[in-house]
Design a protein that fits this description.
The protein is an alpha/beta fold. Helices cover 39% and strands 15% of the residues. The protein is built from 6 helices and 7 strands.
């Protein structure tokens, strides 16, 4: 994949997270210039001169706009947006879910996405063949007991991405969302020490799919909701 994204400017949200780290490295390996944003991040998080770390809080309109403005100020454009930011909370029924949990799920999974898209789309529409790939969740289409706020926030996120696909196809832009099952990240291992990890999805494989969708080979895939469930089907 070396050189696949040469001269492309890529914005990765949650760039140093469990999945984001794999996505960022895949983009760098493909020759892209990567701006990685997270609440706490620095250039030294990746051993590449093509990486720039930008601290940002994108769950607010002002924070998301500032993040996009910072990338455009430095690099002039955004060709590819890989949105990996998200959060999980579960274990309570709808009746028992508190306001704080509900608000946190909406902020991390829905509001982040909306504010980021609203800020980035005017910029990306000026670039031919822009690519947007977001990370949803299997729970968006297969809600279960005890994860109501999480599932609802991810389902709404899927709707946003599919809407973006319809609204921006006129400029050759694509927007797709990947729905992973449980991913093999350090956080999930710590949270579920007795789980069958062999059934989990490997982040590097999700990163490879994002890379493919971001390249020329993925130009005919638009508005797709792609399940990646590993062996837990």
């Amino acid at each position: 994949m070396q050189g696949l994204l040469k001269e492309k400017i890529v914005l990765v949200t949650g760039a140093n997270g469990g999945l984001g780290r794999n996505v960022t490295q895949a983009m760098l390996d493909a020759g892209a210039t990567v701006a990685g944003i997270a609440r706490k991040i620095q250039d030294s998080d990746f051993q590449s001169s093509a990486f720039t770390g930008l601290s940002a809080e994108i769950s607010t309109a002002a924070g998301a706009q500032a993040a996009v403005d910072a990338v455009v100020s430095r690099f002039g454009r955004i060709d590819i947006l890989a949105h990996t930011v998200g959060g999980f909370a579960g274990g309570q029924s709808i009746a028992d879910t508190g306001d704080a949990t509900y608000q946190r799920m909406m902020d991390l999974n829905l509001h982040c996405t909306f504010y980021l898209l609203r800020a980035a789309l005017p910029v990306m529409r000026k670039t031919p063949n822009g690519r947007i790939v977001a990370i949803g969740s299997r729970a968006a289409v297969e809600p279960g007991a005890g994860v109501g706020a999480y599932s609802a926030s991810k389902a709404a996120m899927v709707s946003l991405i599919r809407t973006v696909a319809q609204e921006n196809k006129d400029v050759g832009m694509t927007a797709n969302v990947i729905l992973p099952g449980t991913m093999d990240t350090p956080a999930n291992r710590a949270a579920m020490p007795n789980a069958d990890i062999g059934k989990w999805v490997q982040p590097v494989n999700v990163a490879s799919l994002i890379l493919w969708l971001a390249g020329d080979a993925g130009k005919d895939v638009n508005g797709a909701v792609i399940p990646v469930y590993g062996s837990d089907v």
